[in-house]
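Think of the structure tokens as a kind of shorthand, similar to the way a musician reads notation: each symbol stands for something richer, in this case the local conformation of the backbone. In the example below we present two proteins back to back. Begin with the first one, reading the sequence and then the tokens, and try to describe in your own words what changes along the chain.
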Amino acid sequence: MKNNLLVLPLALILFGLSNKSFSQNKINNSEEVENLISKKRIFNKKYGFGYKIQIYNGKEELARKYSEQFKLEFPNTESNLVYKAPEWKVQVGNYKTKLEADKDLIIFKEKFSGIIVIPMGK
């Protein structure tokens, strides 16, 4: 009985080790990698990529006010006033990654509340 109790854990450990050795045996050839990169480039051309921070969404008068206020507070950051019926949006910055946008979001939150990071499409 004691031998059976020792054999079972050892068998499970050995099976686990032998099973692990086969998990990453496949070698990627460069054609597969190039194909994936090509697909990613086509996707980016079609759908675009990047992020902006939206500091306001609503009425035109307030959108213009927030846009001007933002330009005064952060003159080195790009600011856009966008109209998508029926609302106006103030979108700022131009970021490649969400992490970059999140860093500036923390800074902008000190002056503007309710702001969000939004993904951009083409």
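Once you have a description of the first chain, move to the second and do the same.
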Amino acid sequence: MDVHPENGILARGTLPESLVRALRWLDARPDEPVALETLAAIAGVRPRTLEAHFKRHLGTTPLGWVRRMRLARARQQLLAAGSEASVTSIALANGFSQFGRFAAQYRRQFGELPSQTAKASRAPPPGGTDERLDEAGRLCWRALSTAFMVGPDACGAALDDAERAQELAPADALPKAIAAWCWSQRAAHNFGGAPQLDRARAQGLAQEAARLAPHDALVLGLASGALTLTGRLGEADRLIERSLAIDPWSPWGWARRGWLSAYAGDDEGALRELQITLRLMPFEPLRHLMVIGIGCVHFNAGRYERAARWIADGVSAVPQSFWAERVLVAAAAHAGARAEARRAARALLGKDARLTVSAAREAWPFTPGFMDRLGDGLAIAGVPRD
């Protein structure tokens, strides 16, 4: 699945032709009623086949897709319209003629009524005249890019910016969410040497950020990432589903959704979601993380040579992400390339002197089977057990 950079319409090169026909027909009719039988006839397949295609490639039913996209489009229009926003006209333009039902569905998806979104859109943007808030915003956007490089130096720089932004704007959720993501990296990859303390700090900041900005897709995605790396997978899953309901085309949201699926051992879902992210943002700072994630999916499935190729590509793009070389070393060992695995392990220990098999097994919330094979592979390659 891909998105056209100008209007958000799907680019459909990798989808079945029947699904492409259905989506093109829907694109041209944002306000018309949709019946499954009609849509299937347009697609040229049986209704059950079309439902299967939607489920497999888009993760929902045809009518669920229509409702979700129309609600998301309505929200974007309400946010963009400002003082000109008319909830009634925007609802009608997106195919909602029963306003009570529209308001109820909108509230379920976004946690607020359409009128509340419209009212919020009329407020002056934060930081427009306040120098402290303006500087906090500048630091946040700089930190966001750096934070996703996921290396010790980048993490430290992003954390410095996020903490300064928190001092300038203590009531703002975004710097807290960025800081939570950075502290969770420190905990998972042992960048700071005190993973338990870093983990607790990440969880507290993530939960506070989500409370402060329950309708901000970016904040929720960052908070979900922090909770994922600290092992709070159920809570993280709820936040990322909410983030994607608010902004279905957020690459940050899809990135966290894909990694959550990978940690849970859902190889098919993870591959689909990580590839969606690559198509939404096929460049850094997200690209190498998605490439490494795909490598982890292949490792989980026992495709060790493919895992090593994907992870090597990700690490070569951003050498600071040497934490991923743990999986590369284990993949080489399980693929039978033990001499290569030992050489890679020696190089990795030169960058990560604190690395042990025990520490690696505690780093990520992958399934027990994944972590067992990771630990075994690292031990084969000569990484100290404790």
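Compare your description with these statements about the second chain. Residues 62-81 form the longest helix (20 residues).
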